[in-house]
Structure formats: C-alpha cells, structure tokens
Amino acid sequence: MFKKLNNISITYKLSGIITILIIVSMLFVGVFTYTNNKEAIISRTFEQLTSVRFEKTQRLENFLNTKILELGQFASTSDAVSIFDCMIYNDTAEPNSVNIEEFNRFIGNYLRMQGHVNKFLIYSSKGVFSICPFELETSFTPLVIDELNLTIQNQITNNETIISDLIINENGEAVFYILTALKCDKDGIYIGFEIPSSEINNIMLEDNPYNGLGASGEVYLAGSDKLMRSQSRFVENSVLNIIVPNPVLESNQSEMSGTNMLLDYRNVRVLSSYGTIYWGSNKWMIFAEIDYEEALVPVYAFRDSIIFLGLLGTLMFTAVVMILIITITKPVAKLKKAADEISDGNYNVNIPVKNNDEIGQLSFTFNQMAQKIDEQKKKLDHDRLNRVQEMIDWQENERQRLSRELHDGIGQLLLSVKMRVGRIKGKTPNDDGIIEDTKNIIQQTVSDIRDISNNLMPSVLTEFGLKKGIENLCNEIVINHNIETKIVSSIDELNNTRTSTYLYRIVQEATTNSIKHAKASKIIITLHQIENIIKLTIEDNGIGFDTEKNKNTKSNGLRNIRERVKLLNGNCSISSKKNTGTIINIEIPIQS
C-alpha cells in the first residue's frame, strides 16, 4: 500500500491530505456543534415541560383548594347547620327528613351556579347519602360505594376534610369526593361534593399546539397503582384503565421531581418532566411529556443544515486548496518536465522565474544548471565531432593512400610481372600451360586490386563527380546482387570534395543495409539541390523495422550515416515500419 502511495504525485498527496483534514475538521466541528445544540434543545425542552408541569400543578391545586374552601364555607354557615338540624339533634333522624325545599333554596341553587359537581353528599352514622341538586330530587338516596366508605373510614378520625382518590361511581363514571365536617355541636357529620374527573381533564388535557407541548406533548396524572388519573391525549377512556409503566412510579421516595428521557405508556421514547402531587392522603405523579422525535425536529433540521453546509464547505475548501496546490506545485511540475527534457537530450530549456521564493530560486538554479549542461554538451559534441571528423578524414586519406599504393605500386608491379612472364612463353615445351595459368592468376589479382582500390577511393568520384559515382555504385549492386536500383539526380557534381565523399559514403552505407538487413529487391536514390539545401533520399522496399524500438540502436551503419550527416551540419530522419520498407531523408546545407 505504501509503495503505491509513493507513486502518487505530490499534488494528489497534498490534495488528499488537506481534504481529509478539512473533512475531519468539518466532522469534528459539526459533531461538536450538533451535540451542543442537541443538548441545548433537550435542556430547553425539559425547562419548557417543567414550566408546563408547574403551571398544571398550580391550577390543579388551586382547583382542589377552591373546592375545599367552598365546601368549608358551606359547612360553617348557620343556614347549613339549620338545614341538617334534624340529624344533628335527633340520632334517629335520616337525611330523608331534611327539608328539601330549604336545601334547594340555599345549597342547590349555589351548586347549580358552580357547575363543577355532580352530587351533594352527607355522611353520618347512618351511612352516605347523596342528592343531585341539578335534577331537583325530592330526597337523599343512599350511596353505596365500597371504596368511598373505606376512604371515609380511613380518614375520618384524623382529618377534618376527606379527599378521595378517583373512584368509579354507580354510573361507571370516574369521580372523586370531597367531604368536610359540618360545623355543629355533633361530631361525625360530613357534607361533601361528588366531582367528575372531567374537571381534572379540563385542567390537564389540552390540544392547543401553541401551549408549549406541540403535536405530541401532553400532561397526565398517575397514581401509586400506576393507573392513569387523567384522560390521555391519544387513548380514549384511559382514566383508571391505562397502566403507566414508568420507573418513577416504582420509587419509594416520598418527594420526587426531575426530568428524564424514557418510554411512555405507548412505548414511545419521550422527554418527561415529572413531579409529585398530594391529593388528600393520596400521592399522585404528574408527567409533562413530548415525543423525543418531535422535540428534536429543530436538531434534525440543524443537523441537515450542518451536513449540507459541511459538504458545501468541504467542496469549496477543497476547490480552493486544489487551486492553491496546483499553483504551488505547477513550478515543480515544470521543473519535472524540464528535467525530463534534459534526460531526453534537450538541454536548451528555460523555466520562467516569476517569484523569488524557494521554488523561484530552485528554478533559477535549475536554469543555470541546464545552461551549463548545454554548454558542456555543445563543447563535448563539438570535440567529439572534431574527433570523428578527424577520424573519418584520416580514414579517407588512408583509403586514398592505400588506393594509390595498390593502384600505382602493387598493381604496376603485377602488370610488369605479367608482361615479363609473357616474354618467356614457348621457351620449353611444358612452359606454355604453366605460364598461361600464371598470367590468369596475375590478371585476377590485378582485377581484385583494382576493385579494392576503387572501393577505398573510387576514381570515378574524383574524375566524374558525385552522380556518376553513385550510378557506378548502383550498377555494381545490380550486377553483384541482382537488385533493381534507380537514381534520380539533378546534381552532377559538387565543388566540395569532402561533402561529395561523405554523401557517397552515406549512400554506400544505406544501400549496404538495404542489401544485408532489409532484404530489399528495389532501391531508389533521389538527389536534388533546392536553393542552398542538398536533399538526399534513399528508399527501399525491404522488411523494415520499428523505429521506436530501434531508436537508440547501436547499428554501425545507421550510426555512421547520422554521424556523417551531423559533420555536414545536416538533418537526418529515418522512417520505417515492419514490412513497409525504409526511407532515409537527408538535408545538407551547401558548404564552400
């Protein structure tokens, strides 16, 4: 993996690293901001729920205290005592003996105006009796509710006011009872109200979405038996029917209040603010709750905004970073490109220096280095060309010398020997055959020496010019190798012997390659002068070769051609492909 990373450019490395750092930073800031915002929203929601809970608790307590106060006022008046004096001063008297007309006049009218009670109750040793003043009943009727009787029995000895838990009455309705002692000379007589649970629901249950509870919030009551004491917003007939599986209700602490996130009776995760309400001798719990998902809607919206802005910011930062990195690394890329050109042999490179920073200084130093390398290369090339030229000129001079010595020296001696052998012909009978064979050998030797001399330095080149020399070379190719040759030339001879000799040797090398390596059957040589340029083209129909793969070939023939062209300050291009033949194009400036 690390080896693969080493092959990645510094631009991509820096871009990747900085992009990762930006993403990590965005994630850190986003998570930190999201977490803080979430905690703030939850904390604010808890505060809002607690505020609603306090308000509901206050209203509920005010309602209960108002009822207790009203009932206490009834029980303290002399009119109330006078209405029930038959029971007070006659132990055998029952509520049926109460003056109903007087009762309705004084108490019934008042209760009808209040509108918060179902019935009026009176309790004595005879039991519990009730009357509904709204129906203008003519007498009290016995009220037989075991839970109410049990509540009265448990509280009558210690309390002046008796408050019951919610109880299902004889009509199947959830109600609660408030009774207070009648202020008279006789103990054990209580008067009271039967109040429907709807009065509690009117306080606790609200559907107004602007009350701070939203679409899923509600406030409800639960008793120590975990049964609801108020109507649920989501479940009908929930009073004393729905169990609230709340861990708060399982605690044995007498005073409990706080906030928590838990599952409510619907098994839905909610944010809950809870507290204790003492309802007479009963302990109720009040819960103000809102669904967790609704409470966190602003958080989710904020999260989506963070994600969107984070992605947008990452893209923008990444784009800016990419531009900066490309701007910074562009000179480095230019340096690399220039180094590649130098490695390919092009030393005439120059990098523009725009800034005086580290990269600018490096570019300036690189330019100086490239200039020095170019100067050294030119000097070395010049020295090498001089040496090559000296060597080639020396070779040509040696060829001329050997050619002259072979032609003028050994050749003349052999001719002299041939002539002398001819003079002694016929001296003896057996000499004629031997002498004839000797003459043939000498003649063949003279012919071979003439060929060698001509190859070393063809006389036709010096006597008749370049065109004639190339034509003789082509004729020898036709005779010796049976290869079709064709020469097209507008130049007969050149004034510069050195140029003529080099061009002749180039044609000689090229045709030798076509014969030996290309296996050509046809060679075309074109020689023209256009203005001050000599253009030479050698083309064959041989097997060809891949110029890219053989670009740096060490073939002596091609190398000699290129070196001779370079010595003449010319240009050489070789074009070839597999099975398509080879074309050598040479351009030489005319030299004096």
Number of helical runs? 15
Q: How would you characterize the largest beta sheet?
A: 7 strands, antiparallel
What is the architecture of the domain at 464-592 at the second tier of CATH?
A: 2-Layer Sandwich
The rounded Rg comes to 63 Å
Strand content: 15-25%
Poorly predicted residue ranges: none
The name of the CATH superfamily of the domain at 464-592 reads: Histidine kinase-like ATPase, C-terminal domain
CATH topology of the domain at 464-592: Heat Shock Protein 90
Q: Quick one: how many beta strands?
A: 16
Overall 3D shape: rod-shaped
Fraction in helix: 40-55%
- Mean of pLDDT: 79
Quick one: CATH class of the domain at 464-592? Alpha Beta
What is the structural class?
alpha+beta
Our measurement of the CA-to-CA distance between the termini, rounded to an integer number of angstroms, reads 65 Å
Key terms:
592 residues; alpha+beta; Beta-Lactamase; Heat Shock Protein 90; 15 helices; 53% helix
Secondary-structure map:
Blueprint: H1 2-6, H2 10-76, H3 78-83, H4 85-89, H5 100-114, E1 119-124, E2 127-131, E3 141-142, H6 146-155, E4 161-163, E5 167-168, E6 174-181, E7 190-196, H7 198-204, E8 218-222, E9 258-263, E10 269-279, E11 282-291, H8 292-295, H9 297-343, H10 358-423, H11 431-456, H12 459-464, H13 466-481, E12 484-489, H14 497-516, E13 522-530, E14 533-540, H15 556-567, E15 571-576, E16 582-589
Parallel strand pairs: 12-13
Antiparallel strand pairs: 1-2, 1-7, 2-3, 4-6, 5-6, 6-7, 8-11, 9-10, 10-11, 13-14, 14-16, 15-16
